Amino acid sequence: MSNSPVHPRRGLMLVVSSPSGAGKTSLSRRLLGDHAELELSISCTTRGPRPGEQDGREYHFIDRAKFDVMIEQDAFLEWADVHEHRYGSPTAPVMAALADGRDVLFDIDWQGARMVAASAPQDVVRVFILPPTMADLKRRLHARAQDAEDVIERRLGRAKGEIEKWTDYDYVIVNADFDQAFAELAHIYHAERLKRMRNPGLEPLVQALLNEPL
């Protein structure tokens, strides 16, 4: 742990995307668990909860009517139709976190990533997770046993279209080995936190160093 003084900084938005089953959620959860300064943007969704999910933890589960009202109120930083359901990231808590120097992680698809980047390009870091093979992606979708067979087939059918959007992203990680993929994601996050533009509070220190007599 560094003993350097803490300087005011602006938070960042770390967007992690992948086709379903490629590992973005598992990687994101581990990154969140290892970094107290990083918090998850809790999306609203019109889909029902999966086994083990809780309202307000994984998602805010709301109906279509309420979601549509929030769209009309311009209350989402991004929203999209994904696999027959709608997902959206509320704007207010994210902007408050960034201003307070806290970082926010988004586990969202390419449509959402594109909208977030358009809304706040200086604050966004985009990472895309690729599977090593399509066969491996299919195996992972079956192994997690969260969806019916027809849903899995639809997800696989859309995966290549999602993979085609990889050039939208700043970084791309191939998740052939989970620990290696996580290490790469953590390195990206650490480096982006240190960018000069996100650390305006360093300017007084720099001036003090320059003015200090030798």
Describe, in short, the structure shown.
With 214 residues, the chain is of the alpha/beta class. Helices cover 43% and strands 20% of the residues.
Structural notes for this entry:
With 214 residues, the protein is α/β, with parallel strands linked by helices. It has a domain at 13-41 and 101-207: Rossmann fold, CATH 3.40.50. It is 43% helix and 20% strand. The chain is built from eight helices and nine strands. A five-stranded parallel β-sheet has the order 2-7-1-8-9, with helices on both faces. A four-stranded mixed β-sheet has the order 4-3-6-5. β5 (76-82) and β6 (85-90) form a beta hairpin. The model has no long low-confidence stretch (mean pLDDT 91).
Remind me, CATH topology of the domain at 13-41 and 101-207? Rossmann fold
Gap between N and C termini, in Å? 29 Å
What spatial form do the alpha-carbon principal axes imply?
A: globular
CATH architecture of the domain at 13-41 and 101-207: 3-Layer(aba) Sandwich
Summarize the topology.
Blueprint: E1 13-17, H1 24-34, E2 38-40, E3 43-45, E4 59-61, H2 64-72, E5 76-82, E6 85-90, H3 91-99, E7 103-107, H4 110-119, E8 124-130, H5 134-144, H6 149-163, E9 171-174, H7 178-193, H8 202-211
